[in-house]
Fold each of these.
Amino acid sequence: MRLILLLLPIFLISDNSTTRDSFLSDIEYGKMLYNNPRGIPCSKCHGKRGKGGHKIAKYYDKYGNPKLLKGSNITKYSLKELKDSLSNRFKNRQNHRIVRHRIMPIYYLTDEEIRAIYLYLKGNKK
């Protein structure tokens, strides 16, 4: 019995079923992924609630003027925009391709994981 209880978390993690079949809600799963995806947390740049504005780096332009690189607000992204941005297919309002985020890490998230993060951001509007 003890062995079954020890292996149960491994089985739940490796299961490919949707989060609706698990003990976590989609929003809780999204929060978990947002704060610990695979590497650098989304919250590091986009803030606790995805509203951005966090200083990522200070740099100087070619004229020596100081500049701040800040995380963007991702709370208004549609699910498609969030998926596109995370997979380097993001387009601006005029439907022109934007160059890959130069500092945005690539996380290789599944559609289900991106959807969970999206639901977390939409449900986290405090």
Amino acid sequence: MRFFLDSDVLLDVLLERHPHFIDSAAILDHAVRRPGRAGVAWHSLANLHYLMDGGAEEFIGELLDFVEVPATGSAQLGQALDLGFADLEDAMVASAAVLFGAQIIVTRNTRDYRNSPVRAVTPREAVKLLA
């Protein structure tokens, strides 16, 4: 199963945010064992770097060993704008997930993805689906 990672899942691991760390780390562990099945949006990595005040470069570099970043462009941004999300960043993730061919988006904010063409699940739900 191909899956797409929202930035909150990555932040859970990077910052060891409990109680979310365990399930989010399990998702990344799954991705490590199956390179190329997990995707993440280009802009999500930029946001991660920004939120960490430039301190996420090593983490991002390690992600690139097993996570794919689909090449998005104008068409995907147009699709994101058409999805009707309240948050454009989430719509951009959903559009990138479509391009990647993901069956699920792993996020703790599933409510924000109600209009997503790709089903959003929590890290805990994803652990069960990917087992």
